[in-house]
Structure to design on (167 residues):
């Protein structure tokens, strides 16, 4: 089982606001290239994200199902990676003063990755998940747009309706 840990300069609630917005998934999960749909009930247990991985023109459509949703402490996701198989990804978050520690653990459940020696799977996955936590930190620490604690997509309140722009 591959494990990574990162100290983030935000609260556990900030991390869970990012996780709760399924449309942000490709921004923090390395390898995910686009979202196709987010279940209306996301992030409830059993709800699903529909996304793709790879790069055009070779894209694989897959899904991720929420298995445990216990904010602001724990989320367990089950990505179904098409021909790669199914994995189990647990995110555990603990407050540390005005910051938090986030641990991600990933293990293969089905598919060819279960045949890899643990040292090979762990090395590859730890490398990828270090970047995943790096991206998650950017979103959680910065108050990602589309989260209850975040700002608008422009990074500030839009004034387009309040003040017309002369061009």
């Amino acid at each position: 089982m591959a494990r990574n840990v990162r100290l983030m300069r935000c609260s556990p609630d900030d991390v869970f606001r990012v996780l709760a917005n399924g449309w942000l998934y490709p921004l923090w999960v390395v390898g995910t290239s686009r979202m196709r749909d987010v279940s209306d009930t996301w992030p409830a247990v059993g709800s699903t994200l529909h996304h793709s991985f790879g790069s055009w023109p070779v894209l694989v459509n897959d899904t991720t199902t929420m298995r445990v949703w216990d904010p602001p402490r724990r989320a367990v996701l089950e990505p179904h990676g098409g021909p790669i198989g199914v994995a189990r990804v647990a995110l555990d978050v603990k407050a540390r003063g005005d910051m938090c520690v986030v641990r991600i653990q990933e293990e293969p459940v089905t598919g060819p990755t279960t045949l890899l020696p643990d040292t090979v799977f762990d090395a590859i996955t730890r490398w990828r998940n270090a970047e995943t936590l790096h991206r998650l930190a950017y979103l959680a620490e910065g108050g990602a747009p589309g989260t209850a604690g975040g700002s608008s997509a422009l990074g500030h309140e839009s004034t387009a309706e309040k003040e017309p722009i002369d061009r």
Observations:
- The longest strand covers residues 58-70.
- The chain has three helices and seven strands.
